[in-house]
Amino acid sequence: MTEHQDGCGHPPLRYRNIAFLVTGDGSEISVDHLYVAGPETCSHDGCDNPAVSPGMVGLALDDAEGVFTPAEALLIANRLTRAANIVLEAEEQLPDIEREAARHTIGTGTGD
Predict the structure, then answer these.
(1) What per-residue confidence (pLDDT) applies to 92?
(2) Which of 90, 88, 87, 68 is nearest to 77 (CA)?
(3) Any idea what DSSP says for residue 92?
(4) Which pairs count as long-range contacts for 35-41, CB under 8 Å and 24+ apart, including other chains?
(5) What distances in angstroms separate CA 11 from CA 52, 59, 64, 69, 78, one per listed residue?
(6) Which residue blocks in 10-108 are alpha helix, DSSP H?
(7) Are 31 and 15 in contact (CB under 8 A)?
(8) Cα dihedral angle (20, 21, 25, 27), rounded to 10 degrees?
(9) Domain chopping of the chain, boundaries
């Protein structure tokens, strides 16, 4: 938890770690739910900033950090999934056309 930087004193920014992994090259990836929990608005004189927030999504890769809206996080997750699927599909072996044709011919009884 970290206090807000403006010195206002509203509730601290809290986080819930959703995933943490270390990749094969030693990089550290962290996915967090960032939120503020406290009274409905800040009680400091004239602040009136919201002090309750359902949150944002935090993503950290080593020393780089980003904060995303839920929609942005879902878009990133979708694109990561698409990229991974492309890589996995490229690793699949292409079908052996001659073997498939021979199997079809034998299966239908139209062989030589």
Answers:
(1) 78
(2) 68
(3) S
(4) 36/10, 36/11, 36/12, 37/11, 38/10, 38/11, 39/11
(5) 8, 22, 25, 20, 33
(6) 70-91, 97-108
(7) no
(8) 0
(9) 1-68, 69-112
- Give the model's pLDDT for residue 97: 79
Closest to 33 in 3D by CA, of 46, 49, 20, 50: 20
- pLDDT tens, residue by residue, 59-102: 999 999 999 999 999 999 999 999 999 888 888 766 677 877 88
pTM to 2 decimal places:
0.61
Is the alpha carbon torsion for 66, 72, 74, 80 positive or negative? negative
Q: What is the pLDDT of residues 14-68, one digit of tens each?
A: 889 999 999 999 999 999 999 877 656 666 666 666 666 778 999 999 999 999 9
The answer to whether the beta carbons of residues 44 and 23 sit under 8 Å apart is no
Residue 2 vs residue 47, higher pLDDT? 47
Q: 100 is written with which tokens?
A: 């498939």
